[in-house]
Amino acid sequence: MAYKKNMKMKIKRNIFCKLTLMAICVIFLAGCGSNKPYHEVIVNNPEFIPNTVFVGYEDLTSPKFSALKEKYRLDTIFHGESDEMKRIFLLRNWINKLIKIDNEGPYPGDGSPESILDEALKGHGFHCGHFTAVQNAVMNAYGYVTRCIIADVGSIVDYFPSGEGHHAVNEIWLNSYHKWCMSDAKYDCHFEKNDIPLSALEVRDEYLKNKAAEITLVKGPDRISVAVVPELKNLNRSQIASIYTWLSWGRFNDRFSNGPKTNTDYMNVYADEYFKNHTWLWNAKPHWAYNTEFMNLITERKAIEWTPNTIASKLLIEGSKVQIELNSNTPNLKTYQMKEMPEGNWKDVSNAVEIELKKEKNEIVFRTINLAGVTGPEHKVIIER
Length: 385
Prior knowledge:
Layout: H1 2-34, E1 39-41, H2 63-71, H3 84-98, E2 100-101, H4 113-121, E3 125-126, H5 128-141, E4 146-152, E5 166-174, E6 179-183, E7 189-193, E8 196-197, H6 200-210, E9 216-219, E10 224-225, E11 228-229, E12 235-236, H7 237-242, E13 246-250, E14 267-270, H8 273-277, E15 281-282, E16 285-286, E17 295-298, H9 301-304, E18 312-318, E19 321-327, E20 333-340, E21 347-349, E22 352-356, E23 361-370, E24 379-384
Parallel strand pairs: 2-3, 14-17
Antiparallel strand pairs: 1-24, 4-5, 4-13, 5-6, 7-8, 7-9, 9-10, 11-12, 13-14, 15-16, 18-19, 19-22, 20-21, 20-23, 23-24
Helix pairs in contact: 2-5, 3-5, 4-5
């Protein structure tokens, strides 16, 4: 009996010792984990591409913008719509319905967006350049970064026999897609691929690749797919896409708030291999801006595709603190905002913040907000042990 009792006590002591040892190991390992240094986790954020070739931007503090919104009651166009892209296409549709197409002229007024709209209300029509000027002013009034483009077939084709296949459109920055969208107010249309709006350069890519066989032409705020555009000589999708073979972007981006002082003849042109190996014909002659100060040749595609409202961040981690420096090319920047996940609220911050790291995994989200209240794409920072 004594022998069995001693054996039971030894077994209990062994079990107790093992459990104690396991507990010590767990505590030790946990302690080791808490002493591991913090490090930044790589996150697939929207790409930040700085603006290096475009000059200026529309000044939203200009009274021209508030006057434009009030005079034409632009707020009533939305009907409470909060989705950014839907708001943009509703505004475009309003422009398209208000202004009649007249490619011949003469054109009344002084050519300013206000004058164009006033004369349109009287029944006068205008050409694509006028539509582009109005769309640029209206979109920027709501904080949607917009720029002006001249597109051109650039050669003699049977559907433009006199070489007149040039057109004026806009590109609008879509924060939800963090990309540019070509927007044609004259015909209330744009191109998409897999339901994603395309930039002018992307339309050009698709046309040069396979005559735009893989993209869709859509019209109106409901983005209805169409095969032809009746207002444009019933041209089909491929023929319309060919208009984007040659592209130039207005170099100065303050044409409304600085108008009429801004010289709209200065252009940025993407000088890729196609540009180098072909000649841009304008009305059947080499483009007038060749070898002049007006044509600024850009060899780096990303310079054309700079990304407004996106953020780049630099981190300096020291113990349980991190210093985060933010950088963004946001026109009319009001402030940066920050939210600590998962349950934090957005709060205004400067471009330099210091944060106490309290968790094993710390997730912080940043964004920009401009003077019109439009927020940019979210930029995430993750720091963990």
